[in-house]
Amino acid sequence: MKGVAAGPAQSEGEINTSARRRAWAERNLGDASRRALAEDQHHFLRQSVSTPCLSVVTRAEGAYIEDAEGRRYLDFHGNNVHHIGYGHPRLKEAIARQMDELPFAPRRFACAPATALAAKLAEISPGDLSKVLFTTGGSDAIEVALKIARAATGRHKTISFWDSFHGAGFGAASVGGEQLFRSHVIGPLLSGAEHVAPFACYRCPYGYPEKDGQPLLDLCRMTCASFVRYVLEKEGDVAAVIAEPARAVPYIPPPGFWAEVRAACDAHGALLIFDEIPTGLGKTGRMFACDHDGVVPDILVMGKALGGGILPLAAVLARPELDVAGDYAFGHYTHEKNPVSARAGLTTIQIIEEEGLVENAALVGAHALARLEDLKARFPVIGDVRGRGFLIGVELVRERGSKEPANDLAEEVLYRALDRGLSFKTTFGNTLTLTPPLITTRAQMDFAIDVIAASLAEAIDAVGNG
Ligand SMILES: Cc1ncc(COP(=O)(O)O)c(C=O)c1O
Questions:
Q1: Which domains occur in the chain, in start order?
Q2: DSSP per-residue string spanning 69-93
């Protein structure tokens, strides 16, 4: 049996076997935690960004998690499931009541919570997206979306972005663009999954310059969008373009990008699928990230926070005309119409709406970006600050001119921030990625930014511009 020696690029999160991770564990973990982590590693297959684990979580409440050492962290990571905060009392109560009323709906039966959630999703989604399938995870929902696109167009090819993540299944990994998930280790992926370079204005893959992270459109003429059109035309028979409207790494699209891609899809008979698994339900300060662009996809995929941070739930929403394969089965999952999960989804959306959480993400997110811009003025190692709402990135560089990634520094900042009670993740090794729950207050945001500033200052003293 072969092992895999050389590691792939760490686009998804910090390396979970690094020397710094080990040193953090030495400093922070007592005997009981060490034993629990050893047991975890004994039972679970090792995998990047997961096992071996950092610490043992024992509580998750509101915006906070606590580990077995009693350390409390403001959780600006949360896998993007914790929009309404962990363990929202109203959600727990609704789930408990639903378990009493109707715990499961076997195949062949409709149930009221599932129908109500489908109707609610159609109500809050843009355009005429209204035909729904539920799955238990985002990756499966992506598979369903791909199948719908194939069935509706009679084509099988896709265009997606390098560096994107769409899930771990074979279809999702095929359209994904990360080495971590689509390596030679797992063998051949779906044929016809074409990739193009994504929008990434600070590090434009086409080599165009930017100013303060913004594209110089007179120069680049949005080559990233033109290239999607180019490949659609050359291939001629693409079923769908699939992408995150705002990339969770994060990157915000240049203005007009999606309108141009939408027009190109229409011109070439391809569908547009938006993966809003992390961004949907308010993360970016609008209900959906694509609402910022005023572009409606043919298929919208959401997940993560839909289950309220308690239950696993994802959904695919399609335009009614895409309901074309009634004699076949695309998403016939055991928990397809689970009333308890559906109740969780419905209640989560009600909480988001009634507590004004989307507006909170917009307001507090704008405040955060302004404060991070101030930090950028103080710290030359901050090359770029970008984001929308509560999808925020702080990219660290060795030097602003060269933009050489400061991976070592970013990792040092992460562990120092954990010491100070703030959890987040790094993407591409050098970008501090902050995805707070939508309930985060201005005071909590200020605390987090103060932690980042202090950790950055300390980390620079410790490792230089790394
Ligand atoms: C953009 C995107 N798509 C798909 C997925 C996969 O979702 P899941 O982990 O629920 O399968 C994720 C999860 O991180 C994601 O961020």
A1: 1-70 (no CATH), 89-354 (3.40.640.10), 356-466 (3.90.1150.10)
A2: T--EEEES-GGG--TT-BT-HHHHH
Distance 278 CA to ligand 1 centre (A): 7
The model carries a pTM of 0.96
Q: Which atom of ligand 1 is nearest to the CA of 169?
A: 11
What does the pLDDT read at residue 10?
A: 60
Is the predicted pLDDT of residue 3 greater than 80, yes or no? Answer: no
Cα 233 to middle of ligand 1, angstroms: 29
343-375: burial string, b at 16+ Cβ within 10 Å, e else: bbbbbbbebbeebebbebbbebbeebbebbeeb
pLDDT tens-digit profile of 153-199?
999 999 999 999 999 999 999 999 988 888 778 889 999 999 999 99
**Ligand 1 pocket test, candidate residues 80, 82, 139, most atoms within 8 A of CB:** 139
Binding-site residues, ligand 1, Cβ < 6 A? 137-139, 142, 165-167, 244, 248, 275, 277-278, 303, 314
How far does residue 323's CA lie from ligand 1's centre (Å)? 24
Distance from the alpha carbon of residue 398 to the mean position of ligand 1, in angstroms: 31
The Cα–Cα gap between 365 and 360 comes to 8
Q: What is the model's pLDDT at position 15?
A: 79
* Residue 172 alpha carbon, nearest atom of ligand 1: 4
In 391-441, which residue ranges form alpha helices assigned H by DSSP?
407-419
**pLDDT above 70 for 12:** no
Alpha carbons 309 and 312: distance in angstroms, whole number = 8
* Greatest extent of the chain over all pairs of C-alpha atoms, in Å: 64
225 CA from centroid of ligand 1 (Å)? 24
The residue count for the chain: 466
Measuring from atom 3 of ligand 1, which residue has the nearest CA? 166
